[in-house]
């Protein structure tokens, strides 16, 4: 290796020497021209130096810029900021207005002057002030983390909301009279504040100021102070929602293959509704070898329903229509044969009403009329089956395509054309950080608060008392609810089933390194007694995302992990900009296409929801990546092009692990020596890391996208691929060390 470097140095030196000699001759012949030529030569040399490839040492300058801007607990801080800035307001906005009608039986004998009275309460804008504390004499003062620790206080900030109270009175002559009262900034509780987040008093303070406030300048923040003790929220692993998984069952079993989707609509506060599609094994079916029936399990329906009946209930009656939504291609006889038993099984049911009644009979309600059963089945299909595809009136086509896609995946797996999915692949996992964890808790507590307001106002109205909203809103609900979970680590409301334990832990302060390690820890919520080895093992997809060595010994081995140094966990962004972009760039909706064209085009998924097909996915991917590098599309968006399966999967959701990589085009790094020099000579810290991402030298790649990219391990690999074009790769990224 040293010889190579020596030879390269020789070549450069010789080249430089020849250059100088050449300039010398020019100077002898014509002095002025010589000087001018000399100037040009120097400029050229300067330019050549600027365009030089970077070395491994230069990469460290970029890594330093990353840590200067991001620090080691950025994933915690960004997640919390997202919760305060957006999630809380969204939760308040999505809560329905409280509507109360007085019960007329409470004033017998009196003829009401109005035929109908309606009380309406709605919540508006929320406000969060700086962390405050109230002294014994009632004085308020700004609270700093140091005094919270010393005086065993909770480092939290008051939360206010605008409340509007309307009384609509309808007279006997149908005239309406509306009285409105606005209550601005009503106190609804205190929210614990994460240290060093945008809402903390220590945010962007200089080292000198921090020292004066009694804080360590090297402390990274990312934890809470609850009753004087430091608490950290451990990131919780979960399977990603809206994702189709197909698993092969170990035989002997009633089922051979199972396809499952945990479907969750965006911005919905309901738990995920699961849907399963199961193929019976040959032994499991009573009809001998011919009985590979496929059944679907719908939410709130007791028995498994044959898949063809589900299609007919959705309004697709003809066998041809149904098969088009599953196979797409009628020349695929193997797949059609696998569906034959299912078609024969559902032959008796040949219209939508009968199919809906069949499903309704197996519902939770027993002994109701046929009309009610059909209505019940319709509602289940509309609201509970695959809610992420849509919960409105006209989503049947979309749902039929998605349901067909699940079955298609199941059949591909059964025919051996596609491997079963891997539960332990890190692309299939999402991490719940402080933001989503607090968001779920706040949603629960805010709902409780509105329920209490409703019952208080109902009481007042029934008894003819004056409504006082200050008494109606119990600020203690949110304050003590958030405090309880952070203090005990039991995530959820006290004395309620389904609470998770150990989510919040006392921050480890043994050494500086142990503190940092604790702030970057992950937990898999699997029982520690389980004998399963798979979830504990190091998976290929952990490479570059998880530390392979730092995991405890004993029971929690492999279930408690730590993030690698440069990993960033996505905060999540709205999918609407992506959907609008796709519409403009020629994505065809299901309404516009016939199923026969699907095999020729690429299926497009956004956060697991199939939105349409595209005839030219190459161009689409190139455009998306270009826009992401220009920050016209959020840098967190994952673009996964699966060429073999003809799928393009786009992700904008939260909790994906991603890491920054240098971008390479035509086997050359886009970042050059001049950019490194500018980085090292920058005067303000703003021109650092963010600038490199904005200029398109670096981009974040998540676990799933990583599998569709070529990553060069060293800069020397790139040189080799340039010199041996036979071995070169068309698109190669090179990555940082982690």
TrEMBL record:
Q: Which GO molecular-function terms appear in the entry?
A: DNA binding; DNA-directed RNA polymerase activity; ribonucleoside binding
Taxonomically, the superkingdom here is Eukaryota
**Keyword DNA repair attached:** no
Location of region: Disordered: 1-56
- State the EC number(s): 2.7.7.6
RNA polymerase beta subunit protrusion domain segment(s) = 71-480
GO cellular component terms, alphabetically, are: DNA-directed RNA polymerase complex
The RNA polymerase Rpb2 domain, residue ranges:
241-432, 505-569, 604-665, 689-735
Q: Which chemical reaction does it catalyze?
A: RNA(n) + a ribonucleoside 5'-triphosphate = RNA(n+1) + diphosphate
Q: Please list the GO biological process terms of this entry.
A: DNA-templated transcription
Class in the EC hierarchy, top level: transferase
Give the PANTHER family listed for this entry. Answer: DNA-DIRECTED RNA POLYMERASE I SUBUNIT 2
Q: What name goes with this protein? A: DNA-directed RNA polymerase
Q: Which organism is it from?
A: Triticum aestivum (Wheat)
């Amino acid at each position: 290796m040293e010889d190579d470097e020596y030879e390269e140095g020789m070549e450069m030196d010789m080249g430089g020497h020849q250059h100088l000699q050449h300039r010398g001759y020019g100077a002898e012949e014509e002095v002025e021209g010589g000087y001018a030529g000399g100037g040009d030569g120097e400029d050229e040399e300067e330019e050549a130096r600027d365009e030089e490839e970077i070395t491994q040492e230069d990469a460290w300058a970029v890594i330093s810029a990353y840590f200067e801007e991001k620090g080691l607990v950025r994933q915690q801080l960004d997640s919390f900021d997202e919760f305060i800035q957006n999630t809380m307001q969204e939760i308040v906005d999505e809560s329905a207005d409280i509507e109360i009608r007085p019960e007329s039986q409470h004033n017998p004998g009196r003829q009401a002057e109005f035929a109908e009275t309606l009380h309406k309460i709605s919540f508006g804008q929320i406000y969060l002030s700086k962390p405050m504390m109230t002294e014994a004499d009632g004085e308020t003062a700004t609270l700093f983390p140091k005094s919270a620790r010393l005086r065993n206080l909770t480092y939290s900030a008051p939360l206010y909301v605008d409340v509007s109270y309307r009384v609509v009175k309808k007279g006997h002559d149908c005239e309406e009279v509306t009285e409105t009262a606005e209550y601005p900034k009503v106190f609804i509780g205190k929210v614990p504040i994460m240290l060093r987040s945008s809402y903390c008093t220590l945010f962007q303070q200089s080292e000198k100021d921090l020292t004066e406030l009694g804080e360590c300048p090297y402390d990274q923040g990312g934890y809470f102070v609850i009753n004087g003790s430091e608490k950290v929220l451990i990131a919780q692993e979960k399977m990603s929602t809206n994702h189709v998984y197909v698993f092969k069952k170990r035989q002997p079993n009633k089922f051979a293959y199972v396809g499952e989707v945990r479907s969750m609509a965006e911005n919905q506060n309901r738990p995920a509704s699961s849907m399963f599609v199961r193929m019976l094994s040959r032994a499991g079916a009573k009809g001998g070898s011919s009985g590979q029936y496929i059944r679907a399990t719908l939410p709130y329906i007791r028995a498994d329903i044959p898949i063809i009946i589900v299609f007919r209930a959705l309004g697709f009656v003809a066998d041809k229509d149904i098969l088009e939504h599953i196979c797409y291609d009628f020349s695929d006889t193997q797949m059609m044969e696998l569906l034959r038993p299912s078609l024969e099984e559902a032959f008796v049911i040949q219209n939508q009403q009968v199919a809906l009644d069949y499903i309704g009979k197996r519902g939770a309600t027993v002994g109701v009329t046929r009309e009610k059963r059909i209505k019940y089945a319709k509602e289940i299909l509309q609201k509970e089956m695959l809610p992420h595809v849509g919960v409105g009136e006209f989503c049947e086509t979309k749902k039929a395509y998605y349901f067909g896609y699940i079955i298609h995946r199941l059949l591909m797996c059964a025919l051996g054309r596609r491997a079963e999915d891997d539960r332990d692949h890190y692309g299939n996992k999402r991490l719940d950080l402080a933001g989503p964890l607090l968001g779920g808790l706040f949603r629960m507590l805010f709902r409780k608060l509105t329920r209490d307001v409703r019952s208080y106002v109902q009481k007042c109205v029934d008894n003819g008392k004056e409504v006082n909203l200050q008494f109606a809103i119990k600020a203690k609900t949110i304050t003590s609810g958030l405090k309880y979970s952070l203090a005990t680590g039991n995530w959820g409301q006290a004395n309620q089933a389904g609470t998770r334990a150990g989510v919040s832990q006392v921050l480890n302060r043994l050494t500086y390194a142990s503190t940092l390690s604790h702030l970057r820890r992950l937990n898999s919520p699997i029982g520690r007694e389980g004998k399963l080895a798979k979830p504990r093992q190091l998976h290929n997809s952990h490479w570059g995302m998880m530390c392979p060595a730092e995991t405890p010994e004993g029971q929690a081995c492999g279930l408690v992990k730590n993030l690698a140094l440069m990993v960033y966990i996505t905060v999540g962004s709205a999918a609407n900009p992506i959907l609008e972009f796709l519409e403009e760039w020629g994505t065809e909706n299901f309404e516009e296409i016939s199923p026969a064209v699907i095999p020729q085009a690429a299926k497009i998924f956004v956060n697991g929801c199939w939105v349409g097909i595209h005839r030219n996915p190459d161009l689409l991917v190139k455009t998306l990546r270009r826009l992401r590098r220009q920050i016209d599309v959020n840098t967190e968006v994952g673009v996964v092009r699966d060429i073999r399966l003809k799928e393009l999967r786009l992700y904008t959701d939260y909790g994906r692990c991603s890491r920054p990589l240098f971008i390479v085009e035509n086997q050359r790094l886009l970042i050059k020596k001049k950019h490194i020099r500018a980085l090292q000579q920058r005067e303000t810290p703003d021109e650092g890391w963010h600038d490199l991402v904005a200029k398109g030298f670096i981009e974040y790649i998540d676990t799933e996208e990583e599998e569709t990219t070529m990553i060069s391990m060293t800069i020397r690999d790139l040189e080799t691929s340039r010199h041996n074009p036979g071995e070169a790769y068309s698109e190669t990224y090179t990555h940082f060390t982690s």
